[in-house]
Amino acid sequence: MGLTVQKINKTYRSGETTFHALKDVTLEMETGEIAVILGPSGSGKSTLLNAIGGIDQVDNGDISVEGWNVASLSDKESVNYRREMIGFVFQMNNLIPNLTVYENIEVAANISTSPLKINDVIDDVGLSGMGDCFPRELSGGQQQRVSIARAIVRKPKLLLCDEPTGSLDSVTSKDILSLLKKMNSNYNITTLIITHNEAISQMADRIIQLKDGMIDTVTLNENIYPPERIEW
Questions:
Q1: Which of 64, 117, 152, 172 could form a Cys-Cys staple with 168, CB 3.0–4.6 A?
Q2: Whole domain around residue 75: which residue ranges?
Q3: How far is it, in rounded angstroms, from Cα 217 to Cα 211?
Q4: Where in this chain does the record put each ABC transporter domain (predicted)?
């Protein structure tokens, strides 16, 4: 099993007010699957992603990723877990503006014990010959390709994507989703995408609907479309 989440809860407190961000959330993914988590703003999508990624601690419950018991990790162990197991792709690509494409990816490669070859990854994400370019010289879609390369170069087991197409037009979005699908297939990376865009669920093996911090529905998709055929 690639990912197992068992009855996790997360609350935030402000004065006398308590906000339940996650309520007894349980889900699972097989290794190599693509899952999409859908839900409106405030439904708990980012909180769930951060918990699985070892960024936030949950109040209780269990999270297991390829043998790592994430919910019980110390701060130091969480750093090792993120370095060895997790790749992140965000809506804002957070590239370092004064570093080239190659150097932005190299930053991630340098914290891995067995990274992929940087130039091979640059080729894989469709940026051949652009290793010396700076982010300002790239389109939004190209910058997101660098972000994906930076996540992939460390050979993660789980790729967590937070609205990866949120700032892109529909054509570029499909290109980026196709790239995520390619990376998922080429490297057998379990891939979890959170989004408010229901169209993206057409490419997923598993569709998870989140509402008010709780799992509303889980659907195994019987009609998976390649990203280029998604009806936007």
A1: 172
A2: 3-221
A3: 9
A4: 3-232
